[in-house]
Amino acid sequence: MELTWHGHSTWHVSMDDTDLLVDPFFDNPYTDTDPEELDPDHVLLTHGHADHIADCDRFRDAHFVGTPELTGYLTDEYGVDDTTGMNLGGTVELDDAFVTMVRADHSNGLDTGYGASGGMPAGYVVSDKRPTQESDPDSTTFYHAGDTSLMSEMRDVIGPFLEPDAVAVPCGDYFTMGPTQAAIAVDWLDVDHAFPMHYDTFPPIEIETDDFVREVKATGSDAEVHVLEGDESFTLE
What we know:
The chain is α/β, with parallel strands linked by helices. The chain is built from 5 helices and 14 strands. It has a single domain, classed as Ribonuclease Z/Hydroxyacylglutathione hydrolase-like (Metallo-beta-lactamase, Chain A), CATH 3.60.15.
């Protein structure tokens, strides 16, 4: 599984012949990628804030996944036709990937002028094997936490039952977790690899990533923290 961070919360996940793009937003200081260069099979949306869906119209030929409220909005406002509206706890098979929508603690208003809701905000657990109660040491699993605060679901459900090997956690503070709570999330999830995201895009979420690295170490977690450069990839095996 190859993971590429395009800044903010935008990730490109490639596994076998399947390409997933999460939260397309390329107007951020960490990417030089032209969205036209990408051709994802599926686009996963965690919630409807502009800094997560702004470039959806660049991928109208892809299949979009999100809450029913959000996918309906995309059809009406972005001309997106191929969608799957799902909800928390559900798992969908997307070619070579199994994608489980999990809870995120955040807001989810849509920029309609009427304060419309995009449904529940979410994160996604992406795996090459369907999740079951039987632990599978051969599976490879990546958790995109979306925009979220620290929540016990990470410790009680996502970590022990969905067993991610790696997690991308928001750590810019102000709108999401900051470095300290994000580090606790990494520890609770018991992952091998952790990636900070959702930082430095705007002045309120500017941080020192060294703080996140230090806080993860302070929890006693064995996770290796990878502070990626924009458009940098990591191979998860």
